Amino acid sequence: MTETAARPATATAPQYDPRLTNEDLAPLKKQSWGSYNIFAFWMSDVHSVGGYVTAGSLFMLGLSSWQVLLALLIGIGIVNVFCNLVAKPSQVTGVPYPVICRASFGVLGANVPAIIRGLIAVAWYGIQTYLASAALNVVLLKLFPGLMPYADVQQYGFLGLPLLGWGSFAVLWLVQAAVFWTGMETIRRFIDFCGPAVYVVMFVLTGYLIHRAGWGAIDLSLGEVRHTGLASLPVMLGAIALVVSYFSGPMLNFGDFSRYGRSFAAVKRGNLLGLPVNFLLFSVLVVVTTSLTLPVFGELITDPVETVARVDSTFAILLGALTFTIATIGINIVANFISPAFDFSNVSPQRISWRAGGMIAAVGSVLITPWNLYNSPEVIHYTLEVLGAFIGPLFGVLIADYYLVRRQKVVVDDLFTMSPDGLYHYRKGYNPKAIAATAAGAIVAVVPVLVSALAGAAQYSWFIGMAVGLVVYTLASRRAR
């Protein structure tokens, strides 16, 4: 199958409508990222406190170690395939996720997926910043025990967060904003450092624990094997779904990064190294270090920062905890800062630049007081999971439009015109079929999340929404043609 993309010679063209164009959204003049840059992107995405806890939790499901590793391999293999599918349209055209969505949703309708993805990113941006600040608090309290009263929300608290928490959150908020503000090239260099740095700390930590406990203490099953035979199949399917769900956000807007790839082949190589190879290696390191905390410290510790804090060395504690904190900042910038920056800029390109879009997300992440959101499972359930149910249909519509309806043909100039003659103008700039398919997929996917009797299917909401969105959009589009 061949693909064509009528690209302008320069980043912007005179006929581009200013209501749809600015320097950040226009097609790139130069695409320079190689395989390592994509590989480092995924390392930053995986090598965080959240990635550590997620990988470790899979080994506590009551499955044997080989079943967990098989589920990991299948799940991350699915993510790899889907990321390649999402990557191609943006890499070929050189435009970010909200712009390529104009082909399916319309030049104005693309704001629907952009705002949905942006809101989800804002919520998770705040939560990840809070988790990183909590990791920083562990270090500060270990080094300066006198700060303990300021970590008590009852003594020095405001809006549910203690004074020390506010200080750590503010510092990390400013650091992330500063890195983001300097531009995409600085972000590229930052994530090139973050992922490998965590590997160094992980290997050193693993070596330290093996030295203390011995090789014989390693156990790849973090707990009793409770599921065998056919009874283990639903649990394995749940583990596969969990892996895909964990990556669903960055997977949807991966075009924001693949657009910088110098070739689609380079992007695919980076995905292969960063997803199946990297995630499996990191998961094995996680389960080894977690299992060794039991014989070394007398209890099973699933938080890497807490594990580092138990080491008998101030320097090791400082280095290890700060590395994990920096890595969490890395994933936050790439997964939850850049996405809303493009998404919100797409809403009003002349009023909202890429930097302004990112700062809107940053301010919004404070206003939602993410520490209260994270500490209330009910709120998370009825907000983030409901919004997350929309990610599957958005993915399904994007893939169906590019591969099944348009056969990989995109005319870039028409992505930036408000002319009624443009290919992607549809009805006053909106494509009713894409919006209807998204709504249908989201409604079907969100029902198991909200209805307790169907709770068993809630973990598959992404797959349900994606399948419904893809099928409905494909059938509607082909019938119209």
UniProtKB/TrEMBL annotation:
InterPro entries, A to Z: Pur-cyt_permease (IPR001248), Uracil/uridine/allantoin_perm (IPR045225)
Compartment(s): Membrane
The UniProt record lists the keyword Iron-sulfur: no
Topological relation to the membrane, as annotated: Multi-pass membrane protein
Highest taxon of the lineage: Bacteria
TM helices/strands, residue ranges: 39-61, 68-87, 163-183, 190-210, 230-252, 272-294, 314-335, 356-374, 386-405, 434-454, 460-476
Stated name of the protein: NCS1 family nucleobase:cation symporter-1
